[in-house]
User: Which sequence fits this backbone?
């Protein structure tokens, strides 16, 4: 019977190992583009007995993950992460089912478009705070941006404006997410392939993974417990500042297990939002360094609205069309999640005459769709103009439809991310020229515009690149300093 089953085409693998040795250890999306030229946009791979389906086109992704979402909304099981390290509250890793639906509805509620205005004052304050920090420590540009990404999320979630407490939360979150990145390496822990090993006791010889998981579990639980308890306490003392967790705690409509759901929601939002928005922020900085004409056009647009006398805010959004398109182009140019988050099929399916086995891991190559030159002419060029209404190139696919995933697992943070990045980008552009760094001799560092490097992993980020920030108007900065006093 097996010989009659026609799997989608793909490179021939070895017995049992399958394509495990063919799949490159990093930047798989570029290899998948090459393979898809030979095997087509629906490709089959296998690794250690698991079926892997790679979708390299929008049509295939929509056909399966959206039109057949009842089959393709599950996630592969990460036993090490979910069962042993304690991340079973994170919907990102949760199997599709009633528990997932309950947790996801709690995550979606605070991210609805209608309530996003609640976070605008915090987002504006944090963007301006960052401008001041960059002004005072221009040499620290990229580390400051990294810290600010996590810190802004912490402010929104828990209301901590600044200070040691917020830094501690960010460091805790960094350590917890670092453990996730290590454990998320498919194949690193045998327990992910043989889940029954999770019952092996910690003292058993060779059960090092159990001892490691116990250490990491402490980080995972502290991440959701400590800041949550602080907010609860400050609400009780009457010292709380507005925060997403505060809003949820004050919500009259209490569900059973209310506190745990709120803790989980805040943890999920941090996990979903911090690294992805950091990636987009770095991509923006890199794009401004490599494409100064784009920066100038965006700055002209901002100046035409603010007259250079104030910083832009959300009321200016409708007037800043080019800046809005700039955010879209960031999502397209360096997709933060180039291979999406893997889905899993929960029954056997047939597509275009091929069989997709039950429990196949299904991945969409977002990078290849967003860099397809048939859809986006000159895909390596950072060109927000391609999305401007009435431009020669307008009518191109909205990158949000790809970069944020598909179907019932699509990213609930898309509108939040857009606002979050928009206000940071326009505030930075109003304040600074962003340029390539110069060396001691005054020569600009060379950075090839089509050969920038990005890190590999589920979330991909442009690699370090030296850049300088030159204030555009000292009076604007002084205005911020007075505001801050
Ligand atoms: C540049 C910004 C972002 C990008 C590119 C991005 C992209 C994605 C992608 C590709 C997925 C997987 C979708 C799928 O499985 O089909 C996802 C899931 C998710 N994202 Fe985002 N995201 C971003 C920002 C955010 C933000 C700001 C939040 C929250 C504040 C967030 C929360 C989540 C959550 C909770 C999930 C899991 C959804 C589920 O499994 O049901 N994301 N995101």
Assistant:
């Amino acid at each position: 019977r097996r010989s009659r089953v026609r799997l989608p085409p793909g490179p021939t693998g070895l017995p049992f190992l399958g394509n495990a040795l063919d799949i490159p250890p990093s930047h798989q999306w570029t290899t998948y583009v090459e393979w898809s030229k030979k095997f087509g946009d629906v490709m089959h791979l296998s690794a250690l007995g698991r079926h892997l389906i790679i979708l390299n086109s929008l049509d295939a992704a929509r056909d399966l993950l959206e039109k057949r979402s009842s089959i393709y909304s599950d996630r592969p099981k990460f036993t090490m992460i979910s069962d042993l390290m304690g991340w079973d509250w994170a919907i990102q890793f949760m199997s599709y089912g009633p528990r997932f639906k309950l947790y996801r509805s709690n995550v979606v509620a605070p991210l609805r478009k209608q309530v996003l205005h609640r976070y605008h004052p915090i987002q504006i304050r944090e963007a301006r705070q960052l401008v001041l920090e960059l002004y005072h420590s221009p040499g620290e540009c990229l580390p400051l941006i990294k810290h600010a990404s996590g810190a802004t999320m912490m402010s929104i979630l828990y209301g901590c404006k600044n200070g040691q407490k917020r830094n501690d939360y960010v460091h805790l979150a960094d350590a917890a997410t670092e453990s996730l990145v290590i454990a998320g390496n498919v194949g690193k822990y045998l327990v992910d392939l043989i889940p029954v090993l999770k019952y092996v006791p910690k003292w058993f010889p060779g059960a090092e993974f159990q001892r490691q998981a116990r250490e990491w579990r402490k980080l995972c639980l502290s991440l959701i417990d400590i800041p949550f308890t602080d907010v609860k306490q400050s609400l009780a003392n009457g010292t709380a500042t507005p925060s997403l967790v505060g809003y949820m705690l004050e919500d009259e409509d209490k569900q059973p297990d209310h506190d745990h759901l709120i803790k989980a929601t805040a943890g999920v939002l941090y996990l979903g939002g911090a690294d992805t928005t950091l990636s987009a922020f770095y991509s923006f900085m890199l794009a401004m360094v490599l494409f100064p004409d784009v920066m100038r056009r965006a700055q002209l647009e901002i100046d035409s609205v603010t007259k250079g006398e104030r910083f832009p805010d959300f009321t200016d959004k409708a007037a800043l069309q080019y800046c809005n398109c700039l955010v879209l182009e960031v999502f397209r140019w360096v997709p933060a999640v180039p291979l999406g988050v893997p889905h899993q099929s929960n029954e056997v399916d047939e597509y275009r005459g091929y069989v997709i086995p039950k429990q196949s891991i299904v991945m969409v190559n977002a990078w290849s769709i967003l860099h397809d030159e048939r859809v986006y002419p000159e895909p390596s060029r950072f060109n927000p103009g391609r999305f401007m209404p009435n431009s020669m190139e307008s009518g191109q696919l909205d990158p949000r439809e790809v970069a944020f995933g598909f179907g019932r697992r699509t990213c609930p943070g898309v509108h939040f991310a857009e606002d979050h990045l928009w206000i940071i980008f326009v505030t930075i552009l109003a304040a600074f020229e962003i340029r390539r760094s110069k060396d001691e001799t005054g020569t600009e560092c060379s950075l090839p515009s089509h050969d920038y490097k990005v890190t590999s992993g589920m979330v991909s980020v442009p690699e370090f690149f030296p850049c300088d920030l030159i204030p555009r108007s000292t009076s604007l900065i002084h205005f911020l300093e007075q505001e801050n006093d």
Summary: DSSP finds 17 helices and eight strands in the chain. The radius of gyration is 23 Å. The longest strand covers residues 42-47.
